[in-house]
Amino acid sequence: MTRRQVIRLAAIAVGVVLVVVAALIVPMWIDVLVPAWFKRRFRIGLLQAILGLQFAVLLVAPPVCMIATVLLVRARRRTANAPRAARVVVLCLSCLVGLTLMEAGAARWYVVNRRYPDLPTELADPPGGAPGSRQRTLEILVIGESSGLGIPYDRWLSVAAIVGWQLDRVLPGTRCHINMRAVGGSNLERMHKLLVNQRTRPDCVLIYCGHNEYQARFPWAREVPYYRDALPDEPFMKRFETLCTHTYLGLAIVHALDMQRLGDPPKPAITRALVDVPAFTPAEDREVVENYSGRLEAIVSYCERIRALPIVIVPAGNDGAFEPNRSVVRPETPRDERERFARDFREARRIERDDPERSEVLYRSLLDRQPGFAEAHFRLGRLRVLAGDWPDAQSHLVQARDLDAMPQRCTTPLQDGCRRVGKRHDCVLVDGPAIFKSLTPDGTLDDRLFHDAHHPSFRGYVALAQDIVNQLAERRTFGWPERVPAPRIDPVECARQFGIEASQWTAVCQYEAEWYRNEMFIRHDPSGRRERSRQLSDAARRIEEGAAAEDSGTPGLGCRPDLSRPALGPDGSPL
Question: What is the pTM of this model?
Answer without folding.
Answer: 0.86
